[in-house]
Amino acid sequence: MTTTTRLLARRRFLPLFITQLLNAFNDNLYKNAMVLFVVYAIYDTPEGETFFSGLATGLFVLPFVVLSAMAGQLADMRDKTTIIRWVKFCEILIMLTGATGLALAWTGSASHWVSIPLMFAALLAMGVHSTFFGPIKYAILPQHLEKDEVLAGTGLVEAGTYVAILAGMILGGWLKVEWAALITIVTAVIGYLVCLSIPRAPAMSTDEKVDWNIVRSSMALMRYSFAHKELRYTVLAISFFWTVAAILSVQFIPLAKNVLRADKEVASIMLVAFSAGIAIGSASINHLLKGAVSARYSSISVLAMGVFLVGFYIAVKLWPAAPDAPLLNVPEFLAHPMAPVLMAVLLLISVAGGMFVVPLYAFLTTKVDASQASRSVAANNLISSLFMVVGALVAALLGLVGIPLAEQLLISLVFCAASAWLGYILYQHEKAGGGAD
User: Fold this and answer.
1) Model pTM greater than 0.85?
2) How far is residue 434's CA from residue 430's CA, in Å, rounded to a whole number?
3) d(Cα 61, Cα 391) in Å, to the nearest integer?
4) Main-chain phi, psi angles of 181, to 5 degrees
5) Residues 25/166, Cβ–Cβ less than 8 Å
6) Angle, vertex CA 285, rays to CA 410 and CA 311, nearest 5
7) Cβ–Cβ < 8 Å for 351, 281
8) Helix (H, G, I), strand (E, B), or coil: what is residue 147?
9) How many Cβ atoms sit within 10 Å of the Cβ of residue 322?
10) Could you read off the pLDDT of 87-105 as tens digits, one per residue?
């Protein structure tokens, strides 16, 4: 029995794994159903659609910037399982709010000035929910797993997350919006019930005092992350990677509608391919590294990602322009001779991304003292989120100033190059023996 399959049979891992899987599924079912419905049913210009998609991404990520420091402190200074249970209970209330907004928009019984703010409020609250859950899902692993199980556990969490994202995106694109609203509530309830089986994870820090000053604690967290060399390079490399992901996720839906002339189910399939690739890459890198926590393949993985991005851009440019043609459905899209090439390149982009990012997440919890593991993840969440907000805003603004959607893809190459450089430095430092600056 492999380490991976053995972990899935253990109570010290399985309930956490399922809780995180349901969390990622619900986030993406709600966000995808909301964005696809608004883009295809309410807005009718590429600029407005890209701006809405960017604003939705920015709102979801914003709480990570503001509250990550507090979340990291709480996760190190309090029982992590208790925090999970409170967070999952709040998710039920959040999904009730979001489902109400979706239902009002679907029935047309309230103006968009009521339904869309309700949807955005739930999206922002889900960002807060994920901010407090985020540091725990990785930092709890060293408490429940053996040292040689942490990379396998991290890979499973990451792969499971993207399988769940994939499922959420599929259903968000294919389900009628009223069914999506109902399922988000049911999933939140199931997630809460499952989390009750997660074993206790007592505080790892003897410091009982939480700094509730958001600005001061955030600055302290950033100083902490940059004081440790491996953590500094790891956080920055992950942050540049997620900037690329943020830019691409903002662009996919308007790109599918306005350049490929495809319907929302096709847009959903594109997002699914991206998520499936990250899941495949997450599992593949664990096999290559054989359980070791190493940045050995980081640079080559993200450089490959950049090459595949160029391939995706070329495939989009070769797609015949048909601005007045009716939107392609899934069979019509898949029958197009360029569709297999476009989808294959998109899948390869995300496979390379998954191989890049998974070992770096394992760095966050294994290269620092156990009492600071949650804060190292929180530091990464804070800084990555700052980068993602910038990436989402850049993507939104590029559309507003008239940069064509296909050309917007190329801005991601700059961030791929930065991640590759940081991954190389991190591996050189790893080979030299590590240690703080």
Assistant:
1) no
2) 5
3) 11
4) -60, -45
5) no
6) 25
7) yes
8) helix
9) 11
10) 999 999 999 998 888 888 7
